[in-house]
């Protein structure tokens, strides 16, 4: 699946399971595109460590996470992402998150259940202070 957008995306770094891109004319935005159907948790953490460094270096305030190629939902990765990683990057200024999910209804339902579980077990996380929304297209995610 190609990313269709009227915004110019500039490849910053290609990794084993993802591409990290910057958005021309939007220097405050970083885009993470999953390029495989599953990202093992070790690789997932490595990818997000790179993104945290970029957030700090370039003063990124918005992350677009394009998950459309993912087929496997992994709750431990999601919990780490919400409870550990978002705590770190919130303090670096990353406060806006847009996500593009696969069209698969089971994946989307798994995400909903996962978020509810995180909200129940970690109700005071900094993720509650962030703007976290879902989009259907890359342009929608970038512009909103």
Structural notes for this entry:
This protein is α/β, with parallel strands linked by helices and 144 residues long. It has one domain (9-143): STAS domain (Transcription Regulator spoIIAA, 2-Layer Sandwich), CATH 3.30.750. It is 41% helix and 25% strand. It contains four helices and six strands. The chain has helices at residues 41-58, 75-92, 105-121, 138-143; strands at 9-14, 18-23, 26-34, 62-66, 96-100, 131-135. Strands 1-2-3-4-5-6 form a six-stranded mixed β-sheet. Strand 2 (18-23) and strand 3 (26-34) form a beta hairpin. Helix 1 (41-58) packs parallel to helix 2 (75-92) and helix 2 (75-92) crosses helix 3. The longest helix has 18 residues, at 41-58. It is globular and about 40 Å long.
């Amino acid at each position: 699946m190609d990313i269709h957008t009227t915004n110019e995306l500039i490849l910053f770094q290609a990794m084993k399971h993802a591409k990290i891109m910057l958005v021309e004319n939007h220097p405050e935005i970083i885009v993470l595109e999953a390029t495989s159907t599953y990202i093992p948790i070790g690789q997932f953490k490595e990818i997000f460590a790179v993104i945290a460094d970029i957030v700090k270096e370039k003063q990124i305030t918005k992350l677009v996470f394009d998950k459309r190629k993912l087929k496997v939902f992994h709750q431990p990765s999601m919990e780490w992402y919400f409870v550990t990683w978002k705590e770190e990057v919130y303090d670096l200024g990353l406060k806006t998150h847009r996500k593009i999910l696969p069209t698969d209804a089971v994946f989307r339902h798994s995400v909903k259940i996962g978020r509810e579980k995180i909200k129940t077990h970690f109700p005071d996380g900094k993720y509650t202070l962030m703007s976290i929304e879902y989009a259907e297209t890359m342009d929608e995610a970038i512009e909103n």
